[in-house]
Design goal:
GO molecular function, one term (chain B): enzyme regulator activity
Largest sheet of chain B: 4 strands, mixed
Structural class of chain B: mainly alpha
Order of helices and strands of chain A: HHHHHHHHHHHHHHHHHHHHHHHEHHEEHH
Largest interface: A-B, 26 and 21 residues
Biased composition (Basic and acidic residues) (chain B): 942-963, 996-1011
Number of helices of chain A: 27
Largest sheet of chain A: 3 strands, antiparallel
Pfam families (chain B): HEAT_2, PC_rep, RPN2_C, RPN2_N
Number of strands of chain A: 3
Protein name (chain B): 26S proteasome non-ATPase regulatory subunit 1 homolog
Number of strands of chain B: 10
Strand content of chain B: under 5%
Helix content of chain A: over 70%
Distance between the termini of chain B: 100 Å
Helix content of chain B: 55-70%
Family (chain B): Belongs to the proteasome subunit S1 family.
Radius of gyration of chain B: 34 Å
Oligomer: heterodimer
Strand order of the largest sheet of chain A: 1-3-2
Shape of chain B: globular
Strand order of the largest sheet of chain B: 6-3-10-8
Chain lengths: 520, 1126
């Protein structure tokens, strides 16, 4: 899997959430301004984040924690080693088992040079840093730390170490945090715990030690299931699948998917990821149509504007799987705005398959082999060779009523003449072409083409689309939820309504009485 | 592949288990066993793969010939565990035998399976124990066989038993007794309960031994064994277990077994906990043991006698009338009773209750109607004897120490008799009721301005509102004996006619509730007299009032009421009153004669009289669960044509089933399945009362089912109301349960929801409940608004704070608006007026409590509440709510059962728990003396004044009554008095001075500051929410008898310590003082210096006909000058 893809995946959930935040901001401008100010403050102020997390843990209300997590990618960009060091100093009490480890690891991180974009404001940054120092000194040292804050600081430090390419330290810190989180059974830790799991796997993956953590992930997954920790369960399952796929253990991954359930309440981003992995597994196992539907779902569940890397990976795989199914992907799908350039080799493959040009296909294969290997789509693309030949056959079938096999050999540039008959026979049997072979003469005789519109085919296609639309509608309805107690208005409102109702009743009674009078 | 297999256990680098799985297909058994071993090592990583081959592994386990079949079972179990199928995992884990290692280092697999095993065991063992009594009880041959088969089928898997036994053992090894106790209770293992509490194993008891046998074995062990060493935390475990009995044990039968076991263990403690014991025995309905217990305590030391009194008070408060009567009878064989009656002269004095002497004999069966008449003249005589004769254990005030010892020696001979008499006075209810009456009279804070305002707001012709105001007044003055308002407004009152007159007369009973001594005299002009026939409505009402006065303590009027019933002839209204009165007075007494006479009235088939008779029958047999009574009542309900009678009978049956839980299921089902909706209505009430205060899930589910599915609106309303009763021990839960019902389209269901919340959260001030009800008070249907208002009043009664901005204050405004709004519906206004009455009930000194302090259900309160909710069909039932009113009092009593002057500390600002401010202070000039915040500067001025005459020791009774909140100025002043006798006044005064000047410094900032605590004087109003902040003033002379006995410093040192502590307390530290263990109700006080004269409180005069409104107002506090910075 390419570097771009990894990066995209790493961010798949945060940008999505940010996206949502943006939408909300549009809805209520004034509120958004206030939130924005606070968010800006949040981005530089680790103690503020910690305070939010503590409040959230104390009140068992996940909202504040989610807010911190939502900004984690932005925070990661602006994070300084000094801030993390201060946080460790302030919030992790003396004598805490992780303190020495964290402190030494944090000490290794060199201070980032001020980013060129913010060159104008180095003084301000320094001032902020100084201010933070003052804060850290002013805030009295804590004697105890809640698990959520501890996990959060570990996550911050791990990202910092990863960014500074200190992968061994990152692995050590994340392993320690992983062990502590796994040993704690409290539901307020779920969200933060999931983050710890993720960076644990990430640090080891970058360090090339993925295989060694497989057992640990499996155990953590079991623990999550037993503790009804849905989020942890989903994240760990995805990490495990990624782990297996990275080592091409498709069979193991498939069995794990079959035996381990996927909780319904999973967040969209995790679901999208899960579906993507599932699509890959199915594709390798030749179940193309299932794979295709999984990938389609994944693309749909993924964030629509952000997470480019993830969408790119999905689009690449979707293209190949669709080609393998014998369909031709739409040009528009391959020419989306930010995806067009990276997808160009795939577009060429698709064109080769469509026209059945084996030579062109070979050419693209050779020129872009490195990319395909990196994308881990190479094995699948190799399988496409058959499809190229079939597409060629179909063209021939349409063009000629009778053609010698030898000509086919020439036209399609198949390696050996003896193979041609077998390939053609297979194509006939699979229903790719409607024809028969005259063995004696060595010719292929095409049959009359039926009128497609006389068959059930259009109806079936139509039904397929209808049911798809209905499903989308149903899902949308199911996904809707009303805020609790929304139907209960204000007391004053109720009172006003009651008055109104009484008045109407009185009027009605009066008018009825008048009608009665009129009658007599 | 073989390489992979060889490296499997050590290295994690293998990527598939397929090689090992393939070996399972081999022919050779060794290879299979080897495969299983290697698989077992890697199952955590490859379970998904191994799961594919589960059938083969299972087959290997089932192959009896295969050696490693247990290994196969273990492997299968682990795979099932990973698959999340714990049932299968447990089955195979049990099959794995010793390979399933419980004591291994804890892994999730073992933990999860152990939890599962315990759950499974609990379910199976409960089924087993449920089978036992059925087998023993059923005489029917076929039923017996069926039950036997059942039990045989339910026998617990021995492997499971072994596993759980191992668990218990390891629990005990690790000293996790509470955990073991919890599991034992869940699984109904009585022997393990015993072991967890006492740390002793019961010999010859196995897992399958019937519960009764285990109890017997425990008793035998108790007889043989030595007392349990005091080092163990047995008392704490006992308390824990007792709490669990009330909250977690759902089966009444098993609870009885556990309670019996607890009593056995209590006996073996080195210092037995008699209160705990009597509580258990009360729940078990075991009068014999309670009597023996009291007998023993009575003969014991002084402290033990105090304990006996405390036990007796608890019995009267929590027990049913029948139970208390039985205890009394056992305690006092007839000849002794006579002796007690003669000796009672010595014991009975004070409180103007000379009738006590006669009353002491009353429970023994003496006919005592005459005693009441004898009372007033005896009064001065009694006081005289009290001073003259040194017959009591404590000498009168002027006696010297020498005289006291002499008197004590002289009293020794008389002691047992006088002690018995005192105990009798408590058990007969005489004393508790008199004390409560005393408290309510003394602290009466009825704000008549509210009534006047209501009277003015309601148009005179509106009979509904008129009678509502009469009811409201009765509730406001309930138990205070102050009927000034009625006397002042006789003309207005005369507008009540017919049944309104009945209710108005009955309201006298509410006002004079507990005024036993003068009941007859008060009602003389209304009661039926031979020859003279006044209005039957007032006669009936007066009888009803008599019943209300003597509710639940009917011995004094029993014969009178029976006579009245016989004399009433065919007058329905008088009969109605007499029947209700009889039911009230003899509530839960199971009096056969009364029951039969009521039945005779019922069989006359007159709608009005029959209705009351049916209700009366239910009340007399309340909580007995009597099958005969239920059969008769249901049978007659089917016979009669009168709906009124059917409804009352249904309700009566429900009352009979009070607290029977599971035993009542048969009757409840037959009622609920009846075609007649009125009987189904009774069924809903039966569910409510049978499971009242249990929060049983089964009952709640059943009620919810009826509430949404019955076709009759009445039944649905009753069912929703029933929820409140079932959940009344768990008030916080109720609003959530009825939340959806409160939004029902059906107004009857909504009304039921208001009542449910009102009943369950009564007196709690629960926030959710208030918010919900507040929203419902604007409902579109008038009676839902009515219900919401009444329920709000129930919830907010005596909640704190009561200021104008509090929830209670807002409700007052809302009620005021509803009452004065001419366009508001009459129904709603009726509710609003009633709600005002409830909110201010009992002179603002009572609350509504359906359960006692320790979580015991109170029969009179719950039954009274249930009947009250029926005012929907019959307004004269409103006064029944007075049965649920409990004074919010803390009354301290000394060994003579009299109230000494004693103060304790409430560590909260006085305004937190103050009375609500009066409506219009200038309207009548009657200022309810609210606790005023005392300026620290003025406090200092007061202090200076007080320090001057500290040694004069003048009578400050009135002044003290006035300043409920003296704050910090009060504390030192009071400790002054306490220490004065010890000649340490100078030291204390100086330290108090220091404290006061310190306070002044703080106050000099110019801010008005409220003192952080206040002193409360015996008898004091203590709100339920206030109980958490009470403490004993350090160094006070009296200490509550129920508290951990800490080593006390010697008397001399105590004075100095007290002075120091008082100074610390005055300095603002609220931590000073011991925590009070018993926080409301009656507290028996131990006198630390018995040789000194005691200061006792003078009895307060009671109101009523014989004492025409001469209640003097307490004098206002002495004027003082505000001198800043002086």
């Amino acid at each position: 899997m390419g570097a771009t893809e990894k990066k995209g995946e790493g961010k798949a959930d945060e940008p999505k959430a940010e996206d949502e935040a943006k939408k909300k901001a549009e809805a209520a401008a004034a509120a958004a301004a206030a939130t924005k100010r606070e968010d800006d403050r949040l981005l530089v102020d680790v103690p503020a984040q910690v305070a939010l997390i503590e409040r959230s843990a104390a009140t068992k209300d996940p909202k504040a924690q989610n807010r911190v997590l939502r900004h984690s990618s932005a925070i990661r960009r602006k994070l300084t080693a000094q801030a993390v060091r201060n946080a460790i100093e302030t919030f992790i009490p003396e004598g805490h088992p992780l303190k020495p480890l964290l402190a030494t690891a944090a000490a290794k991180v060199p201070e980032k040079p001020p980013p060129p974009a913010a060159a104008g404001a180095p003084a301000a940054a320094a001032a902020a840093g100084a201010e933070m120092d003052v804060d850290a000194q002013a805030a009295e040292k804590r004697t105890a730390v809640c698990m959520e804050v501890e996990a959060y600081i570990c996550v911050l430090l791990t990202t910092l170490l990863i960014d500074a390419k200190l992968l061994d330290d990152a692995a050590a810190v994340s392993s320690a945090a992983f062990a502590r989180v796994q040993a704690t059974n409290q539901r307020t830790l779920d969200a933060m715990g999931a983050k710890v799991y993720f960076y644990y796997a990430r640090a080891h993956e970058l360090g090339g030690k993925l295989a060694s953590i497989r057992s640990a992930l499996l155990r953590a997954h079991r623990t999550s299931v037993l503790h009804h920790n849905g989020l942890g369960q989903v994240v760990l399952l995805n990490l495990l699948l990624r782990n297996y796929l990275q080592h091409s253990l498709y069979d193991q991954a498939d069995k794990l998917v079959a035996k381990a359930g996927f909780p319904e309440s999973a967040p969209n981003n995790q679901l999208a990821r899960y579906l993507f992995y599932l699509g890959r597994i199915k594709a390798v196992q030749l179940e193309y149509s299932e794979s295709f539907s999984c990938l389609l779902q994944a693309a749909r569940k993924a964030p629509q504007r952000a997470a480019v890397g993830f969408r790119l990976s999905v689009a690449k795989l979707t293209t190949i799987v669709q080609l393998l199914m014998g369909e031709v992907p739409s040009r528009s799908a391959l020419q989306q705005r930010e995806l067009e350039k990276p997808l160009r080799p795939y577009l060429q493959i698709a064109q080769a398959v469509r026209i059945g040009d084996l030579a062109h296909f070979k050419h693209v294969m050779e020129t872009s082999a490195a990319l395909f290997h990196a994308d881990r789509t190479h094995t699948l693309i190799v399988r496409l060779r058959q499809n190229v030949i079939r597409a060629g056959l179909r063209n021939i079938n349409l063009a000629y009523t009778r053609i010698p096999l030898e000509s086919i050999w020439h036209k399609l540039k198949i390696d050996r003449l003896e193979d041609v008959e077998c390939i053609v026979a297979k194509a006939v049997r699979d229903g790719v072409i409607d024809a028969e072979i005259d063995h004696a003469a060595g010719v292929l005789i095409s049959k009359e083409v039926d009128d497609l519109y006389a068959t059930l085919e259009p109806q079936l296609a139509f039904h397929k689309r209808t049911s798809f639309c209905l499903n989308v509608h149903n899902d949308a309805v199911k996904a809707m939820s009303f805020p609790p107690d929304a139907h209960k208005g204000d007391l004053e409102q109720e009172e006003a309504k009651r008055k109104e109702r009484l008045r109407e009743e009185a009027e009605l009674a009066q008018s009825l009485a008048e009608e009665d009078d009129d009658e007599f | 592949m073989s390489v992979a297999v060889q490296s499997a256990p050590g290295l994690p680098m293998i990527t598939s288990a397929s090689g090992m799985l393939a070996m399972l297909e081999e022919e050779q058994l060794e290879i299979k066993a080897y495969a299983l071993r290697t698989l077992n090592a890697v199952v955590d990583d490859f379970w998904a793969e191994i799961a594919e081959c589960l059938p083969e592994i299972e087959a290997l386990y089932e192959d009896e010939a295969f050696e490693a079949r247990q290994l196969a079972a273990l492997l299968a179990s682990k795979v099932f565990f990973q698959l999340g199928e714990l049932d299968d995992a447990l089955t195979y884990a049990l099959g794995a035998g010793a390979l399933f290692d419980v004591s291994a280092t804890s892994s999730e697999y073992v933990d999860a399976l152990l939890a599962k095993a315990i759950d499974e065991y609990c379910v199976q063992h409960v089924r087993l124990t449920d089978g036992q009594p059925r087998r023993a009880a059923d005489a029917d041959a076929d039923a017996d066989a069926a039950a036997g088969a059942d039990a045989a089928g339910a026998a617990v898997d021995p492997r499971l038993v072994a596993l759980v036994e191992r668990m218990f053992d390891s629990c005990f090894e690790r000293r996790q007794y509470k955990q073991a106790l919890g599991i034992a209770i869940e699984a109904r293992r009585l022997d393990v309960v015993y072991r967890a509490i006492t740390r002793e194993r019961l010999a010859a008891v196995t897992e399958a031994t019937p519960l009764a046998d285990i109890g017997a074995a425990a008793a035998a062990a108790a007889d043989a064994g030595a007392p349990i060493e005091s080092g163990a935390d047995t008392p704490a475990m006992l308390e824990h277990c007792l709490k669990a009995c009330g909250t977690t044990i759902g089966s009444r039968e098993f609870r009885a077994h556990v309670l019996r076991l607890l009593v056995t263990i209590y006996h073996r403690l080195p210092s037995p906990d008699y209160l705990g014991m009597s509580e258990c025995l009360g729940q078990l309905d075991d009068a014999h043991t309670v009597a023996a217990l009291l007998e023993k305590l009575m003969r014991g030391s002084g402290t033990e006698f105090l304990l006996a009194c405390q036990v007796a008070f608890d019995l009267v408060e929590n027990g049913t009338q029948r139970f208390v009567n039985r205890v009394t009878a056992l305690l006092l064989p007839p000849p002794a009773a006579a002796a007690a009656a003669s000796g009672a002269d010595g014991g009975a004095h004070g409180f103007g209750a000379a009738a006590n002497a006669a009353a002491a004999g009353a429970p023994a069966g003496a006919d005592d109607a005459m005693a009441v008449d004898a009372a007033p003249p005896a009064e001065p005589a009694a006081t005289a004897t009290a001073t003259a004769a040194a017959s009591s254990s404590a000498p009168p005030p002027p006696a010297t120490a020498a005289a006291a010892t002499a008197a004590a020696a002289g009293a020794a001979a008389l002691e047992p008799a006088s002690r018995e008499a005192k105990l009798m006075k408590i058990l007969s209810g005489e004393l508790p009721i008199a004390l409560h009456l005393e408290f309510l009279c003394r602290n009466n804070r009825t704000d008549l301005a509210i009534l006047h305002a209501m009277k003015a707001a309601v148009e005179p012709r509106n009979a509904l509102c008129h009678s509502a105001i009469v009811h409201a007044h009765a509730l406001m003055s309930a138990g205070t004996t102050s009927d000034v308002f009625l006397r002042d407004n006789l003309d207005w009152l005369a507008r009540a006619t017919n049944w309104a007159k009945f209710s108005a007369t009955a309201s006298l009973g509410v006002i004079h509730r507990g005024h036993h001594t003068q009941a007859m005299q008060l009602l003389k002009s209304y009661l039926p007299t031979a020859g003279l026939s006044a209005s039957p409505f007032s006669e009936g009402g007066a009888l009803y009032a008599l019943g209300l006065i003597h509710a639940n303590h009917g011995a004094p009027v029993r014969s009178y009421l029976l006579e009245a019933l016989r004399n009433a002839g065919s007058n329905d209204v008088v009969l109605h009153g007499a029947c209700l009165a009889l039911g009230l007075a003899l509530m839960a007494s199971e009096d056969a004669q009364a029951y039969d006479e009521l039945k005779a009235v019922l069989y006359n088939d007159s709608a009005i009289a029959g209705e009351a008779a049916a209700l009366g029958m239910g009340l007399v047999m309340a909580g007995s669960g009597s099958a005969r009574a239920c059969e008769e009542m249901i049978a007659y309900a089917h016979d009669t044509q009168h709906e009124k009678i059917i409804r009352a009978l249904a309700l009566g049956v429900a009352i009979v089933q009070y607290g029977r839980e599971g035993e009542a299921d048969g009757v409840i089902s037959s009622l609920l399945l009846d075609q007649d909706d009125i009987l189904r209505y009774g069924g809903a009430y039966a569910l409510a009362l049978a499971y009242a205060g249990t929060s049983t899930n089964g009952a709640v589910r059943r009620i919810l089912d009826i509430a949404v599915s019955d076709v009759s609106e009445n039944v649905r309303r009753a069912a929703v109301t029933a929820l409140g009763f079932v959940l009344c021990n768990n008030p916080a839960q109720c609003p959530r349960v009825v939340e959806l019902l409160a939004e029902s389209y059906n107004p009857h269901v909504r009304y039921g929801a208001t009542m449910a919340v009102g009943v369950a959260c009564a007196g709690t001030g629960n926030r959710d409940a208030c918010e919900m009800l507040r929203a419902m008070a604007t409902d579109s249907v008038e009676y839902v608004r009515q219900g919401a208002l009444i329920a709000q009043a129930l919830v907010l009664i005596q909640s704190s704070p009561q200021g104008p901005d509090s929830r209670a204050g807002q409700l007052r405004k809302q009620l005021d608006k509803a009452i004065s709004d001419k366009h508001e519906d009459a129904m709603t206004r009726f509710g609003a007026i009633l709600a005002s009455g409830l909110l201010e009930a009992g002179g603002r000194n009572v609350t509504i409590q359906l359960t006692s302090l320790n979580g015991h259900k109170k029969l009179p309160a719950i039954v009274g509440m249930a009947v009250f909710t029926n005012f929907w069909v019959w307004h004269p039932l409103v006064p029944f709510v007075s049965l649920a009113l409990t004074p919010t009092a803390l009354i301290g009593l000394n060994a003579d059962l009299k109230m000494p002057k004693w103060a304790f500390q409430s560590n909260a600002p006085p305004s937190t728990f103050a009375y609500p401010p009066p409506l219009r202070p200038e309207a009548k000039g009657k200022v309810a003396l609210v606790a005023t915040a005392v300026l620290s500067t003025s406090a200092k001025a007061k202090k200076a004044e007080r320090a001057k005459d500290a040694d004069k020791k003048q009578d400050k009774d009135k002044a003290e009554k006035a300043d409920v909140a003296m704050g910090e100025a009060g504390a030192p002043a009071d400790s002054d008095k306490a220490v004065a006798g010890k000649k340490a006044a100078a030291g204390a005064a100086s330290s108090a001075d220091a404290a006061a000047s310190k306070e002044t410094r703080v106050g000099a900032d110019g801010k008005e500051r409220e003192p952080p605590f206040q002193l409360l004087h015996n008898p004091a109003r203590v709100l339920p929410q206030q109980e958490g902040v009470l403490s004993v003033v350090p160094g006070s002379r009296y200490t509550p008898v129920i508290r951990e006995i800490a080593p006390r410093p010697a008397a001399g040192a105590a004075g100095a310590a007290a002075a120091g502590a008082a100074a610390a307390g005055a300095g603002g530290s609220s931590a000073a003082g011991d925590k009070l263990l018993r926080l409301s109700g009656f507290v028996l006080l131990d006198d630390t210096t018995p040789s000194e004269p005691q200061e006792l409180l003078e009895p307060a005069p009671t109101g009523g006909a014989s004492v025409p409104a001469n209640m003097e107002e307490p004098a206002p506090p002495a004027p003082f000058e505000f001198t800043e910075g002086a």
